[in-house]
Design a protein that fits this description.
Layout (H helix, E strand, L loop, with lengths): L6 H11 L10 H10 L5 E7 L2 E6 L6 H5 L1 H8 L4 E6 L2
Antiparallel strand pairs: 1-2, 1-3
Length: 89
Amino acid sequence: MFNRENIAQAQADFAEKRYCHIDNILEERYIQALYKEVPNMPYGVWGCIRNSHNKYPAGFQNSEKFAGLQAHIEKAEESLVTFTMLIGY
């Protein structure tokens, strides 16, 4: 499962950069299996405005409920809104 040849490089990259390439951690067949499953993984969206944080399910942006929030979102954009995709929602 693990790419033993490059694991030392992954450890060095993470120690320096706080991230590493998946190629240096997993064997190719496991990487391809992950890529195949990503579209099926549940994920969500966090909407944050000042100290208000709301979690929304995948696809929420296409719902009628989201359309009703458009005016609120536009007003909030004036005070910086951050949306982040989360895997494993």
